[in-house]
Specification:
Elements lengths: L30 E3 L1 H7 L3 E6 L9 H14 L5 E4 L3 H13 L3 E6 L5 H9 L3 E5 L3 H15 L2 E2 L5 H7 L1 H9 L7 E5 L4 H15 L8 E7 L4 H8 L25 H10 L3 E5 L1 H15 L5 H15 L8 E6 L7 H7 L10 H8 L2
Parallel strand pairs: 2-10, 3-4, 3-6, 4-5, 7-8, 7-10, 8-9
Antiparallel strand pairs: 1-2
Helix pairs in contact: 2-3, 2-6, 3-4, 6-8, 7-8, 8-10, 11-12
The chain binds ligand F0G.
Ligand F0G binds next to α3, α8 and α12.
Length: about 350
């Protein structure tokens, strides 16, 4: 009974809420065949699912439409989260839509400008914590329990319920044909957990016959999951000083680590690191060669695909879907630093012609 255009609420029958949703029409994000990049690296069937095309510019909206709806259903009157930026932007927006107060805790100096702008504009109480994301999450968890505030980080199961629809939409888009591999950036490890959960449910329902190889990419300076996968351990070793240009995934103690390790292992997937240089090169490549604008963390998925293809881990005839999790405009400062400045020119045709070499 799954008809109609792709969207989070198309799969309502598989989402655990009963109330009318708090929604801004999330999901239904485009899948783009990245032909030029694919040809260059030797994967014909490479795709990007651009989650930056959600209402607030990241995949977090899928989790928040379900999570904030659930908050109201449970009679909660205020909501909070810790965030590297996107979760806070999304919670601010869905809290505004629901008409309830929002508190967000951000790691000072390490949140991209567009995300802070969203949290502030939509009326959240924005606290800048002198510490990193892991510190902020520890604090908000304790304070939500003490003060009866509803926590909307990815420890909240309803957030993951919403995000599992990324997996639904991917197989739905390909006519219920399962791609070989889904690649995504991993930070707090909620998204890879959520997508795998969704696909396992589809398999149980008999809608698909297997789950793609779930492949997680982390930045080299912030890679507890990758290290655990490579060393074969059951749990991660916390990194106390995570660092990367991809501030969205600058996380040393992912709360969903154990579930994510399980998701990667049971689907025959893998995890790999990429350097900041590789992330920024992939971001630029997507932008210039395919016309797809993503933020640095999102480009980690494509950087990972390129690396894993070079290593021979990804076969040339695989159908691969990279999830690009957030929009280019989230982090304008990194872009401005990376690109050449605009060429300043006098307001005459002669001056313009000269610059253009005509
Ligand atoms: N990509 C982007 C753009 C993100 O914002 C995040 C997480 C991830 C990937 C990783 O997803 O945590 O489920 O493994 N951002 C969170 C936030 C931590 O606060 O916005 P994950």
């Amino acid at each position: 009974d799954l008809k109609g255009p792709l969207s989070v609420w198309k799969y309502r029958a598989l989402l655990p809420v009963s109330r009318e949703p708090i929604s801004l029409k999330e999901g239904g994000t485009p899948v783009y065949h990245i032909r030029r990049i694919g040809e260059e690296i030797g994967i014909k069937d490479a795709h990007v699912k651009h989650e930056g095309m959600n209402p607030t510019g990241s995949f977090k909206d899928r989790g928040m439409t379900v999570g904030v709806t659930k908050a109201l259903e449970l009679g909660m009157t205020s909501v909070a989260c810790a965030s590297t930026g996107n979760t806070s932007a999304s919670l601010a927006v869905y809290g505004a839509r629901a008409g309830i107060p929002v508190i967000v805790l951000l790691p000072q100096g390490k949140v991209a400008l567009g995300k802070i702008a969203q949290a502030l504009m939509h009326g959240a109480k924005v606290l800048s914590i002198r510490g990193n994301f892991d510190d902020a999450l520890r604090l908000v968890r304790e304070m939500c329990i003490e003060n009866g505030v509803y926590l909307l980080n990815s420890i909240n199961p309803y957030r993951l319920e919403g995000q599992k629809t990324i997996g639904f939409e991917i197989v739905d888009y390909f006519g219920w044909e399962v791609p070989d591999r889904i690649i995504l950036p991993v930070g707090n490890a909620g998204n890879i957990t959520a997508i795998t959960k969704g696909l396992n449910e589809m398999k149980k329902l008999g809608l698909i016959d297997r789950v793609p190889m779930m492949t997680g990419i982390q930045a080299e300076g912030s890679a507890p999951i990758v290290k655990a996968i490579k060393s074969g351990s059951e749990n991660i070793t916390v990194e106390s000083k995570p660092e990367t240009v991809a501030t969205a995934i600058r996380i040393g103690d992912p709360v969903n680590a154990v579930k994510a390790l399980n998701a990667i292992r049971t689907t025959g997937g893998t995890a790999e690191t990429v350097t900041d240089e590789e992330i920024l090169a992939a971001q630029r490549m997507l932008a210039v060669k395919e016309g797809i604008g993503v933020e640095p963390a999102s480009a980690a998925s494509v950087a990972g695909m390129i690396k894993l293809r070079k290593m021979g881990v990804i076969e040339k005839d695989e159908r691969v879907v990279c999830v690009t999790t957030g929009h280019l405009l989230k982090d304008p400062e990194t872009v401005i630093k990376m690109c050449e400045s605009p060429i300043e020119v006098d307001a005459t045709k002669e001056a313009i012609r000269k610059v253009l070499g005509q």
